[in-house]
Amino acid sequence: MAELTAHETTRLDELRANHPVLTELGARFSDAGHEIALVGGPVRDALLGRAVTDLDFTTSASPEQIEAIVEGWADTTWDVGRAFGTIGVRKGAEMLEITTYRADEYDPESRKPVVAFGTNLSDDLARRDFTVNAMAVRLPDLEFVDVHGGLDDLADRTLRTPIGPDVSFGDDPLRMMRAARFVGQLGFLCAPDVTEAMVAMADRIEIVSAERVRDELNKLLLSDHPVQGLRVLVDTGLAERVLPELPALQLERDEHHRHKDVYEHSLTVLEQAIELEHRLDERPDLTIRLAALLHDIGKPRTRRFTGDGQVTFHHHDVVGAKLARKRMRALRYPNEITDDVSTLVELHLRFHGYGSGEWTDSAVRRYVRDAGPLLERLHILTRADSTTRNQRKALRLQRTYDDLETRIAQLEAQEELQSIRPDLDGNRIMEVLGIGPGREVGEAYRFLLDLRMDRGPLPEDQAIEALRAWWAAR
């Protein structure tokens, strides 16, 4: 087994200095005659020089004994994980999870373990997902424990399993999704036997709940390099089970190569959208990343070859929006983010009608109105969707979109585009026309809204005159 370098030892010392609870908690458990160790992600991240936030511990103490040991020291405890041996603790700003040594067994038809408590740290570490997460630091003395070669794999940036990958993934298939996530999050590579097991066992992911799959997919998408992790999902066949629309983008190229590789294009759009996230207040942004990844998923359904050998994808924006909504519902995404992503997918081609600036002010207003609060994300998606290698064409598209954004800003200076309302509200419409609530009021409202889009804000007397003329003609 590899020895800690002086630099790595320093990082563990810094970890203890930055988190005094490690020393305090270690002393309390030691005084009570129990072992406790920091384990998993916090140890890995500390050795990598990454920020450590949540602290996970494993101990010889039972849940009841854990509660007794932290009583009077912890600010708050919670036991929602008691059935799995976990007690949550808050001490100041620190959030801790302390779990009794585990030696679980798994039902082959379910990823839920038959909970069994273990008796020692080594057995507990053997049930971890990857060797880089199976390192521990015994407290309070900061004794480093690495029985599965995690330190070597950390140096090699390699994902291996403490036990055979077929056994590990058979026990918990979600670990295959987690492997892809760590590729994107940490920049690691899967060991060959890990990849082979993922290919052979990809169908096992189907026993995992949609919510758990979604959560892992989100973590991957929000990582620093999600494209590399997504490639793992596609190459191993996992994506075919959890996000089949992604591998479906690998369309067979026509012999004259008259259309782009839609799969590679989509991954590039995702990368370019991430580069533009600085335009948003909060980042990383799950909505724009999902929209960028899924924006062209309507193309396989709409691909047609014309008589002259050209390829078309008519209405792939509308079809793609429906497919995005269907997939996101299957993965149990919240309604709000589902609506936002499908709207962006449906609008992502709208800009191409702008030409070289031919849109009227009315068309610009409609663009803003239809995007609503998603306007900034639509700007990002539209700009990211340019992946042409023709520099002149790319520059032309960029300058044209710059022009559109300038026009939007100018119109916004004249009026609040994103909250456009007709010049008369429903009550005033009923008063002017002498009608009560009903379908006609809605029709009149839409007429006035279109009028506002076409001509901008009008004085009340002109709006009333136009409304009466419309009503008479009707």
From TrEMBL:
Cofactor(s) for this UniProt protein: Mg(2+)
Gene Ontology MF annotations: poly(A) RNA polymerase activity
Top-level taxonomic group: Bacteria
CDD domains referenced in this protein's UniProt entry, alphabetically: HDc, NT_ClassII-CCAase
SMART domains in UniProt: HDc (SM00471)
Enzyme class, spelled out: transferase
UniProt xrefs under SUPFAM superfamilies: Nucleotidyltransferase, Poly A polymerase C-terminal region-like
InterPro entries xref list: Bact_CCA-adding_enz_type3_sf, HD/PDEase_dom, HD_domain, HDIG_dom, NT_sf, PolA_pol_head_dom, PolyA_RNA-bd, tRNA_adenylyltransferase
Domain HD span(s) in chain numbering: 262-387
Parts forming coiled coils: 394-421
Enzyme Commission number(s) from the entry: 2.7.7.19
Keyword line: Coiled coil, Magnesium, Metal-binding, Nucleotide-binding, Nucleotidyltransferase, Transferase, tRNA processing
Statement: the UniProt record of this protein carries the keyword Acetylation: no
Protein name per its UniProtKB record: Poly(A) polymerase
Species of the source: Aeromicrobium tamlense
